[in-house]
TrEMBL record:
CDD domains: ParAB_family (cd02042). It comes from the Bacteria. InterPro entries: DNA_Partitioning_ATPase (IPR050678), P-loop_NTPase (IPR027417), VirC1 (IPR009744). This is Iron-sulfur cluster carrier protein. SUPFAM superfamilies: P-loop containing nucleoside triphosphate hydrolases.
Length: 230
């Protein structure tokens, strides 16, 4: 079982959208997947509840007490191949617990100078945790994922992205700001929407399926690159 945790000291960086997309990528690849919502706002958990139906291959649970995480993961190991943990945009002792239980840490970062600075704080926390560990080689690898990237970024966005690549380990594939993620909010997982569009009797809607497939391929590539970051 692979546990991937979002770790960022900034809210609004696109953590929930990214973690939902990565969980969707794992499910669409045929893997039983658990998404754990440890953010007090419970955006991921509430999204799944509001769908009003089960999603084959995907279970979403809420986590209010980080001390309960280990037991939750022990239970998940019986069936799940992947676990994705969404977290709040802040620091705290809870982060130590999540780091200990994770195989990979990812830090979503929007392309702005402010986000570079806050990502630096998160990365410094990770570096201090590595230094304090009895065996640093057992620490999960840390990667930054550039999120909410427009297809035509401004010069300031490009400069922020360049600064990130110079300062942190960054996943090559960027998580683009796609309208399709808004459709996921309303209708359900991306892989289901892609299939629905492909089979729509309206030829125009069938033509739109490629946008959903592109978003799904992007999430799959990011997931593959996270796992290759060891």
């Amino acid at each position: 079982m692979i546990v991937i945790t979002a770790l960022s000291r900034k809210g609004g960086s696109g953590k929930t959208t990214l973690m939902r997309a990565l969980a969707d990528a794992a499910v669409s690849n045929g893997h039983e997947t658990l998404a754990i919502d440890a953010d007090p706002q419970k955006a991921l958990f509430r999204w799944h509840q509001d769908l009003g139906r089960e999603t084959p291959g995907l279970t979403v649970k809420e986590l209010d007490d980080p001390n309960a995480l280990e037991a939750m993961l022990d239970e998940a190991e019986k069936t799940a191949a992947y676990v994705f943990i969404d977290t709040l945009g802040a620091g705290g002792m809870w982060a130590d617990i999540l780091v200990e239980q994770s195989n990979f840490l990812i830090c979503p970062m929007m392309p702005s100078e402010t986000d570079v600075k806050i990502t630096r704080d998160t990365y410094q926390y990770y570096r201090r945790a590595c230094e304090a560990a009895d065996d640093p080689s057992l620490m999960p690898p840390f990667s930054v994922v550039l999120t909410r990237m427009p297809s035509k970024p401004t010069k300031s966005m490009v400069l922020a992205a360049q600064a990130a690549f110079e300062a942190f380990p960054v996943i090559d594939e960027m998580f683009l700001d796609r309208a399709q993620h808004g459709d996921v909010d309303r209708e359900g997982p991306m892989h289901e929407l892609a299939e629905k569009r492909q089979n729509d009797p309206n030829a125009l809607m069938r033509g739109h399926a490629r946008y959903y497939l592109d978003a799904l391929r992007e999430a799959r590539t990011i997931l593959e690159q996270i796992e290759a970051s060891q």
